[in-house]
Request: fold
Amino acid sequence: MITLSTLLLVLAADSAISVIPRPVHVTPGPGAFVVTGTTVIVTDRATRPLGELLGDYLFPATGLRLAVRAAAPAGARVITLRLDPALTGLGAEGYRLDVTPGRITIRAPQPAGAFYAVQTLRQLLPAAIFRQARVPTAVWTIPAVSIEDFPRFRWRGIHLDVARHFMPKEFVKKLVDLAALHKLNRVHLHLTDDQGWRIEIRQYPRLTQVGAWRRQTIIGHSDRDSTKWRFDGQPHGGFYTQDDIAELVAYAQARFVTLVPEIEMPGHSQAAIASYPELGNKPDTLPVWTAWGVDENILNPSDATIRFEQNVLTEVMALFPGRWIHIGGDEAPKTQWKASPLAQARIRELGLKDEDELQSYFTRRMDEFLTAHGRSLVGWDEILEGGLAPNAVVMSWRGIDGGIAAARAGHDVVMTPGSHTYFDYYQSADTTTEPLAIGGFLPLDTVYAYEPVPAALTPDEARHVLGAQGQLWTEYIPDPKRAEYMAFPRACALAEVLWTPREAKSYPDFLARLATHLARLAVLDVNYHPLKN
Ligand code: ACM
Reply:
């Protein structure tokens, strides 16, 4: 029988444990561990960098520079981190975290798991631990608990479009930090589009000399009648140098985040065509686009253009060590290819049926190229339309059908349906109280309710669903503060969709934990959308 006092104890313990995403197994214990100046962090060789990272996380708010050692000094109260091959069953990213009043023990089969244990530990501390200056009044209490934890999905992503609005390097780092705090492990950078090219490519300097800058930006939504368009008259642009990219990659790697670069082709390429007009289908010189929408100015399908894009990808691969290279592939209208003698000649000489097959030919050339270099091509679901390249991974954004078709064909899939993962959509039913957004309606509870594995798939096919990802398209997201507003707390809900076992999810329980979690985001200066409705 449960007595009232036990129940109160359990409730008190539970309310102290407001971890997002919810861990798989949480067993509260009696008492608490208090971090003080004599606490020592003890690591093995493999977890040493993580012990130092934990020390760095704890230092600003506590003002305590905890010693990191290879062995525990006699009598010291320790936080131990070590790899434990006996826990291999927890998978590449799982961990055990045991907190008692006398010691904290983190064990994981691999470093990623120990990293996620550290993220959980941060969330067990008072929210003030996220301050970047000393909080003299705080007591750094961690409630006793045993946690065993591992993710449901391998691909837990957030995407950021830095092409429509350039986002400073420091914000990309902040997004990586926030991803890691929520145990997300992919940050997808949409680096190129009609409105801007954001990565230095040394072989083709005009891509950033010309392509990184636009003269002005359309105000509001594009009317169908382009004579009604109005512009802000403000030049906009920016790009990451290769040194910036190297810095971002290292920053992300240290936080177990893989950056996934996206170089769009053959559509969404007007900034590239503005830089090198020979990439287009017409002789005209185009500006970097100043409006939003689907643009008919796509790349031509010549061998020279394919080589150009492969040369770009060579530099991209040298910078981004991760396996996945995204080539876009979405929204490539075929109007110009239909009218182009060159494109039509290619269709004939390659024995293709139509322009969709020509795009698939283009994509297949990229797939062969990336595969030969040990990488995997990722594309939006339009890459299915003229036949899927043999090794392609599909991002299913126009609903879930592309994901189902690709998984059935034996391809890996990342679920990114607009209906549940487009964080550029409105998050309140009353849009009059919200800043202008692209449209749509994606409230927090809809994100939380999302089930990434389509019901139509067999268990064998479902194994191809790597996970899902939230999208931040930035036509109507002009700056980092707005990006935070659109991403949070919806990214918190998606993190739980991707990490927590399906049967352990509960929206009321999530909301209760979120109340505590929002205090953390506030300390971290995240401009989250307040809970209302
Ligand atoms: C997309 O939203 N065009 C992938």
User: Anything to note?
Assistant: Residues 277 and 284 are 7 Å apart (CA to CA). Confidence is low (pLDDT under 50) at residues 1-14.
